[in-house]
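Supplementary Methods. Inverse-folding protocol.

Structures were first reduced to a discrete structure-token string of length 93. This string, shown here, constituted the complete conditioning input.
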């Protein structure tokens, strides 16, 4: 009986470790960088928002931005006075 309890405890510890690593992996963030531009060139002051969140970035004078996203965030909303509203998906790789 004692060996079964120890074996069960080890399995429980391994399961808890696996679950905690999974939660940490789900919360990892990546930095996405890009440039917002139209036919006339870069767009300054465009707002890039991760869809359905409050996470946003604003482009600089060169239209460049960087934004931290979780691994499952893939759709951006882009708004600016110089262009129409745009949604854009990204793919890894």
């Amino acid at each position: 009986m004692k060996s079964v309890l120890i074996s069960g405890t080890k399995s429980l510890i391994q399961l808890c470790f696996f679950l905690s690593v999974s939660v940490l992996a789900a919360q990892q963030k990546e930095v996405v960088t890009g440039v917002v531009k139209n036919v006339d060139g870069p767009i300054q002051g465009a707002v890039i928002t991760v869809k359905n969140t409050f996470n946003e970035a604003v482009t600089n004078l060169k239209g460049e931005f960087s934004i931290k996203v979780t691994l499952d965030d893939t759709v951006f909303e882009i708004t600016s006075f110089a262009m129409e509203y745009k949604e854009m998906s990204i793919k890894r790789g």
